[in-house]
Amino acid sequence: MFQTEYDVIVVGGGHAGSEAAAAAANMGSKTLLVTMNLQNIAQMSCNPAMGGIAKGQIVREIDALGGYSGIVSDTSAIQFKMLNKSKGPAMWSPRVQSDRMKFAEDWRMMLEKTPNLDFYQEMVSGLIVENNKVKGVKTSLGLEIKGKSVVLTNGTFLNGLIHIGDKNFGGGRAGEKAATGITEQLVGFGFESGRMKTGTPPRVDGRSLDFSKMIEQPGDENPEKFSYLDITKPLVVQRSCFMTYTSPEVHDLLREGFDRSPMFNGRIKSLGPRYCPSIEDKINRFADKDRHQLFVEPEGWNTVEMYINGFSTSLPEDVQFKALSSVAGFENVKFFRPGYAIEYDYFPPTQLQHTLETKLIDGLYFAGQINGTTGYEEAASQGLMAGINASLKVQEREPFILNRSEAYIGVLIDDLITKGTEEPYRMFTSRAEYRTLLRQDNADFRLTPKSYELGLASEKRLKRMEEKQNKADAFVQFFADTSVKHDEINPILEDKESSLMKQSDKMFKIFSRPNITIDDMRKVASVESYIQDNNLDTEVIEQAEIQIKYSGYIEKEKNNADKLNRLENIKIPKNFDYSKLKSMSLEAREKLNKIQPVTISQASRISGVSPSDVSVLLVYMGR
Ligand code: FAD
C-alpha cells in the first residue's frame, strides 16, 4: 500500500503536525501526514482564538517564515484586536477570535493544495527503529510505513484520560480516542516521560443567554491582520464578545462540588497550566476575590455555540450547570457540552536538541504539546521548526536554529531544551530578554530572509518585505535629513504641552520626544506630502515611527544581544565529560552532563549552573 519511502512522516494533524507537514513538503521533502482523524485537522481543542500576548508575536514569526498559521488565522477570523496598544510596541500583540470550524477547514484546504504532501488516517502505534535510527512508523492496523525521519506531534492524545467530576475515561479530546503504544515503546528505548493536565470550559447555546446583562467587547475600530502577505485582508465586519462576572453565590455553588472534584480529591495528580487555572482553582486559591471575569466568545460567524472563557472546569456536570445558571445573563443557559480536564503523557524536552530532534534516536523529532507546552501557537511554531529541520536532515543540509535574540520561537525552544518544564509551558513577553527586538511588526525583517534562503518563504514574500523595509528606511532617513522651521512646529508642540523650539531643527529629534506622535508630525506639510508622494501605507508609517521613537532602546538591546552571541559562538565539544571539572559544583556537573549544552551561553542558562561554574568552563575552554 505504501510503496514509497517518505522523506518525512508527520504523526498527528494538530497545530504542530499541520505546520510540520506544510514546512517539510514545501521544502521539497516527500511528506506523509498520518493522523487519527482527517476531519479534525488543526482542530482548536480549547479556545476559538489565535494570538494574544507573546503568542501573537509567534504567529507573525510563523508567517514570516512561510508557515500557514497566520494566513489561516486571518481567513477564519471573526474579530481582531491589537492588545497592549497603550504600551510600547514591544508589547503590542495581535489576537483574533476565530471561527473554529472554518479554521480547521481552511487549514485542511491549505494542506491539500501543498505539493509533495500525502495524507493517511490511522493511529500510529509505534516507531520502526534500527540501531538508534528511525526508519518509519507502524499503525494500529499493522501497516509499516517507511520514512527517513519522523516528527511526533501527538498533543494531548498519548494515554489521554478525560475527567468530569468523579467520572473518567480514556480519550485524546472530547469525543476522540486516546493514542496508545508510543509512550510505552519510547520509554523502552530509554526516554523519560511524565504526565500533565489541562482543562476546558463548557460550551453553551448563545440563544439561551441574555446579552443585555453583559458588557459588549467589540473588535478594534481599524482591525489589522496577521499575515504579511497581501493574500489576506483585514476584517470589515466583526462579531463581538461579551463580558460578565461570577459572584459569591456562583462560588458557593461551585464549592458544593469540591468533594467530587478530581482536582481536589487526588484523582488528578499532574500539574496544569499555571496561567490558565480552572474556575475551581481560582476560587480556591483566591478565596478573598468575590468575582472573576468571564468572556463569552462566539465559536464562529454562523453558529450559536459560545465558549465561556474563564470557566474552565472538571467539576461534575450538574455542578457546572447549576453554578453557570447563577451568572448574570446565564439564568436560562442551555449546555452544548460540559467542561472537562484531561491528563496526558509528555516527554521532558531536555531530551531534545535545538533542532527538536531527540538525543536518543536519530531522525526522530518531537513538536508541540508532547514537549510539555500548552497553546496552539507554541505548538505550531515547534511544528514548523521540526518540519524544517527534519527536511534539512534528509537533504543533508545544515540545521536551522533561531537564537534568543532572533525570535520568540528561539526563546521557546531554548527554554524547553535547556531548562525543561514541569508544568505546561506557555510563552510570555517576560521570557524574552530582547523583546524590543522581537516585535510583532518586524518579524518579517527578522525571519523572511532566513526562510527564503532555506527555500521555504516565497520570492513574493521576500520582495514584499524588502519593499516595506526600503520604504521604512527611506522615511526614517527623511526625518533624519529634513529640518522643520520653529514657527511651523511650535503650534503643534504647544498643543501637546511640549517645550517650544527656538530655531529650526531636524525632525527626527522632535519626533523622538515621547509625547509626539505620527499624527502630530503629519501636521507638518513636508511630512504629509512625503507620505502622499511615496504612497506610504500604515504598515510602513508605523514601522518608521517605531524605529525613530525606540531607536535608543533598540540600539542598546542589539549591543546586549551581540555580547550574548559572542558567548553563543564558543562551542563545547560533543559528549563533553563535566565530571572532570572538580572545581565546578556537583549540581552543575550533573545538570551539564545530562543536558549536554552546545555552547557556553546555553550552559549559563541551565538552572543550577552559577556564574562561577561558567567561569570554570570558560577557563577550561581557554577563554
Ligand atoms: P493537538 O492539537 O492535540 O493535536 C494532536 C493531533 O495528533 C490530533 O490531530 C490527534 O488526532 C493526532 N494524534 C495523536 N496521536 C496520534 C497517533 N498515535 N497517531 C495518529 N495521530 C495521532 N491550550 C492553551 O493554551 N490553553 C488552554 O487552556 C488549553 N486547554 C486545553 C484543554 C483541553 C481539554 C485540550 C484537549 C487542550 C487544551 N489546550 C489548551 C491545548 C491546545 O489544544 C494544545 O496546546 C494544542 O492543540 C497543541 O497542539 P498539538 O499539535 O501539539 O496537539
UniProtKB/TrEMBL annotation:
GO cellular component: cytosol
Cofactor annotation: FAD
Domain tRNA uridine 5-carboxymethylaminomethyl modification enzyme C-terminal subdomain: 548-619
Residue sites binding FAD per the record: 12-17
Leader sequence residues: none
InterPro entries found in the cross-reference section: FAD/NAD-bd_sf (IPR036188), GIDA_C_N (IPR049312), MnmG (IPR004416), MnmG-rel (IPR002218), MnmG-rel_CS (IPR020595), MnmG_C (IPR026904), MnmG_C_subdom (IPR047001), MnmG_C_subdom_sf (IPR044920)
Annotated compartments: Cytoplasm
A Gene Ontology biological process term: tRNA methylation
PANTHER family for the chain: GLUCOSE INHIBITED DIVISION PROTEIN A (PTHR11806), PROTEIN MTO1 HOMOLOG, MITOCHONDRIAL (PTHR11806:SF0)
Protein name: tRNA uridine 5-carboxymethylaminomethyl modification enzyme MnmG
Organism expressing this protein natively: Formosa maritima
Organism lineage: Bacteria, Pseudomonadati, Bacteroidota, Flavobacteriia, Flavobacteriales
